[in-house]
Predict the structure.
Amino acid sequence: MKTLKIAIQKSGRLNDKSVELLKNCGLSFENYKSSLISPVSNFPLEILFLRDDDIPEYVQDGIADLGIVGENVIEETEVAVSYLQRLGFGKCSLKIAITNNSDITDIQGLNGKSIATTYPVILGKFLAKQNIDADIRTISGSVEISPGLGLSDAICDLVSTGGTLKSNGLKPFADVMSSEAVLIGSKGSENDDLIQELIQRIQSVLRAKETKYVVLNVEKANLPGILKLLPGVKSPSVLPLAEEGWVAVHTVIPERDFWGRISQLKQAGAQGIVVMPIEKIIL
Ligand code: ATP
Ligand code: MG
């Protein structure tokens, strides 16, 4: 049987969540920090630990069949790979930022200015689309200090909370792209049975993450009102309790509706509400 290879970031912002996702898929492996390759003992898969910048090309060239990497890195390296699944972590945006005292007021104001970035390809395409002629200064890191050093008028960098911009006297000015971690595969890999199985495992973990298992007790008379508030995976289960006239309702609800729904349930007579995480949802 052939063995697949998946490339993930060796260390950095995506490493922990990538490892956690694969472990939640039931894959058993050692997260060796010192080794570049780790075999999975219960699935025909090997994990390659790489710099994130190298992952798109490894996957494009078929050295790895799969990879987990930020969309920003894929766009920047301009590789031909298949997008298999968005993963919901590593969310950030690539933004142009200017100094707090900058005289630039609108996007056309970037004409003739210099912008420091580690993303020259994405920034170049963005500026071309807006018909802006700016000087892109490609540097390899610590972009946010370049306006303070007089190296550029603006920067284009990844932002999640905006804290780094603020502490360097910068403010966000224009959104270039938003990004999250995605699973990519070599072209055509989506037709592989083993890869399909892995994608299905990942999807069942992601679905479970978005939902909670809720159990609550309610007097039978209040049951119709409660059921209206609970659109479950199918319909909720209703089980009799030892106490006459009471039932337990079991259901699965989306995390995003969670708090609003809980207070409505209480108002409708729900008691003893227990909320539990779900490991996997297999449809
Ligand atoms: P490597 O050593 O693997 O090259 P790196 O320093 O290039 O790592 P990290 O800073 O670990 O990369 O970021 C990895 C990815 O995490 C980014 O490419 C991006 O997709 C995502 N990310 C999420 N939030 C942020 C953020 N605030 N700043 C930078 N990257 C972020
Ligand atoms: Mg990198």
The chain has a mean pLDDT of 94. The longest strand covers residues 170-179. Residues 51-53 surround magnesium ion (ligand 2) (CB under 6 Å).
